[in-house]
Amino acid sequence: MAKSNKPIVWGLFAAGGTLTAFLLPALVLLTLFAAIGFAPDLFTYQSMRAFAANWLGKLIIFGVITLSLWHAAHRLRVTVHDFGVRSDLVVATIVYMIAAIGTISAIFSLFSI
Amino acid sequence: MNSKPYVREISKTGWFFQQPRYMRYMAREVTCIFIGAYALLLVVALKRLAQGPEAFQGFVDALQSPLGVLFNLAVLVAAVYHSTSWFNVTPQAMPIQRGEEFVPGKMIVGAHYAAWAVVSVIVLIWGA
User: Which of A77, B10, B65, B107 has the smallest number of CB atoms closer than 10 Å to its CB?
Assistant: First the structure.
């Protein structure tokens, strides 16, 4: 039987697409508030550190980052093809590599908090 | 046999400018660049958070630069466009059958928008 990694990347794409659709507009609005200084207490070191300290917070952070990354990576692979680039293997390697590096970096950061 | 078959010329790079619906498709697909960039921003933020108070403050300062504000604005627009385009195709992506009949598409889309509103309110209350 021919093996394919399509179900994995497609599953991550769909899960990430759904999660980001529900969560990201509100989350980006929060970081925008922090960026314009509208909510100065929002991104304090203490509060963020406390959120990332317990396993539930870690799980939420890991889920949001990882699924967003893999959703974007898979869609970007297809979109680059639509823009006329036909070297899919190179493109797929680059975008999945970036997503993997982001995933690993997030794991290391979370373990050291 | 026709020795000179008609070949419609289609640009490989600019084909989506030909029709509004192709443009909407590409706009939907391009949102992934902003979502991916934002995810990488979160990766960096998490790394700075793990490194300590000074590193994290450096990240917040960078976030509050004009470029940081502009970036967040751009991602916000892309994220909202992604959400609407994602929810609008849910009847095609996951049709729900009840007995003989399919649940009307408007109900499936509406339920997603309602859930989106609830999630957004929860996140905003939690954050503010």
Answer: B10
